Amino acid sequence: MNAPAAPEPRASEPRAEDRPARLTVGVVGAGRVGPALAASLRLAGHRPVAVSAVSDASRRRAAELLPDVPVVEPARVLALADLVLLTVPDDALPGLVEGLADTGAVRPGQLLVHTSGRYGARVLDPARRAGALPLALHPAMTFTGTAVDVQRLAGCSFGVTAPEELRLAAEALVIEMGGEPEWIAEEARPLYHAALALGANHLVTLVAQSMELLHKAGVAAPDRMLGPLLGAALDNALRSGDAALTGPVARGDAGTVAAHVAELRKHAPATVAGYLAMARTTADRALAHGLLRPELAEDLLGVLAEPSGGAAHPADPADGPQGDER
């Protein structure tokens, strides 16, 4: 009787020959991202061995997500680890890489991974000249610095940039962390990162402002009111794009928009500039996609073109402080 054929590997999984060997893992910069990624790699069979942390908060994160992993200096992390995660702020990354390379901390054959969305693999060139294997793996996820982040990595997209010869290794590491690799060209990294920041970072600001305004309007639980509404809006936007636009701007209700601006100037003047900017962009997109009728757009755009949105002039002292509510 013939033995059954070995099952074909799933498309989402790397072949056995493409999987990285079990690696010792180090983290330079125990912010919200690094410990979570290292903990995820540990679940995949790799072994975290060292982490660098400066602040009390980063030490607490390391202790929670990487218990029993020693906290050491960055150079020591590189000395102990086959795979090093450089999880520092974007602006600190180039200097860190140059410093590690200049001091001889980088070892030939060492996998050096940064998680910056802004940079591709080129920022690691000083380490690459010292023999390191450079990978840019950016998780498209917001992090809390707690164990919940490890769970959220399941299905998370990673922006991957690496030399062609390291592409399979980069993709395999992402898959082992539960993520989905998305290849981003080196020159496209800044645009890629700007797109994510526009959608995710600014969303947090908008939601926080909305909750503050609802609280001022007397709503006891703004989060409960907004949750279903924002969930539906996000789902519709992801499914339908601009076709999901709704509300007074998309309808051309200029009077309603003018009333909004007047109320915002009275109760929360710091929100007016953002409201007007988003309303103008919404109107432009609604016009371009045939949702806003041109005959209604003129009055609406007139309201949005006024610095005060049709209310009193910004210099009027009766309006209170402008753009700085404390």
From TrEMBL:
Residue ranges annotated for the Putative oxidoreductase/dehydrogenase Rossmann-like domain, each copy included: 16-139
Region feature (Disordered): 1-20, 305-326
Record-linked SUPFAM superfamilies: 6-phosphogluconate dehydrogenase C-terminal domain-like, NAD(P)-binding Rossmann-fold domains
Annotated InterPro entries: 6-PGluconate_DH-like_C_sf (IPR008927), DUF2520 (IPR018931), NAD(P)-bd_dom_sf (IPR036291), OxRdtase/DH_put_Rossmann_dom (IPR019665), TM1727-like_C_sf (IPR037108)
Bias (Basic and acidic residues): 10-20
Location of the DUF2520 domain: 156-281
Domain of life from the UniProt record: Bacteria
Protein name, per record: Putative short-subunit dehydrogenase-like oxidoreductase (DUF2520 family)
Organism: Streptomyces nymphaeiformis
